[in-house]
Amino acid sequence: MACDLTGGRLRPCKDAVGGIKKLHFVDFGDLGTLTYGSSDEITDMTGTFDYHTYDVKGNSSLETNITSSMENGTTFFEQVLSVTLFKLTKEDNKELKLMAYGRPHVVVQTFDDKFLLVGADNGSDVTGGTAVTGTAMGDLNGYTLTLTANEIRMPSFVDGGTDADPFAGMTSATATESTQRDPS
Predict the structure, then answer these.
(1) Does the residue 180 lie in any domain?
(2) How many structural domains are present in the chain?
(3) Which of 155, 180, 176 is nearest to 165 (CA)?
(4) Strands 48-55 and 174-177
(5) Which DSSP category does 15 fall into?
(6) Are β-strands 156-157 and 105-110 bridged in parallel, bridged antiparallel, or unpaired?
(7) What is d(CA 163, CA 145) in angstroms, rounded to the nearest whole number?
(8) Domain of 49, in residue numbers
């Protein structure tokens, strides 16, 4: 049967750290055909695309909720990306509006330099957020966003990504990083 377990898991070393370092946004559908390895990791993609990098340096997280229905015989994975971006700018207002109108794919780069694709098949939707000035001097002046993707698998690891090039392992893809703005 296809849903039989294939292995166990030992208790791992305590060398993992939490948090997100960067987010890499790609317009929906531009990744091309995705190739999956035996562990559901993405080993290649065929698209030609620009990606847009956002440095987040913590204060952001990815959570996957598993929803399984015994009555209906269905299972899906709700991928929820919570993002905090510091400092309000007119340029970010425009870009975040476009992000809310679309449904981008998002490659999440963790502080462990692992790369996970959110919204592989269906893209991710901005389902909430705020633009806030704060009240006190030490309050957040910036944006919070929630992006949600419903997929048939958990966020897949992207093979071969590096800090300099999150798509380095995707030999059939042509990925170009857009210019990053300094919100100073």
Answers:
(1) no
(2) 1
(3) 176
(4) parallel
(5) -
(6) unpaired
(7) 23
(8) 20-158
Q: Closest Cα to residue 177, out of 100, 107, 82?
A: 107
Longest C-alpha distance within the chain, in Å? 59
Planar angle of CA 86, 92, 94, nearest 5 degrees: 155
Instruction: Tell me whether residue 175 is in a domain.
Output: no
pLDDT computed for residue 16 by the predictor: 86
In this prediction, residue 1 carries a pLDDT of: 52
Place of tokens 């995707």: 170
Question: 165 lies in a domain?
Answer: no
Paired tokens of 88:
């309000």
CA-to-CA distance for 124 and 103, rounded, in angstroms? 5
pLDDT, one tens digit per residue, over 109-157 is 999 999 999 999 999 999 999 999 999 999 999 999 999 999 999 999 9
Kindly state the DSSP code that residue 35 receives in the 8-state scheme: E
Neighbours of 104 (CB within 10 A): 24
pLDDT bracket for residue 98 (50, 70, 90)? very high
Q: How far apart are CA 43 and CA 81, in angstroms?
A: 23
Please name the residue that has the structure tokens 């913590």.
Answer: 58
Give the residues across from 86 on adjacent strands.
142
pLDDT (tens digit per residue) in 35-87: 999 989 999 999 999 999 999 977 899 999 999 999 999 999 999 999 999 99
Residue 72 lies in a domain: yes
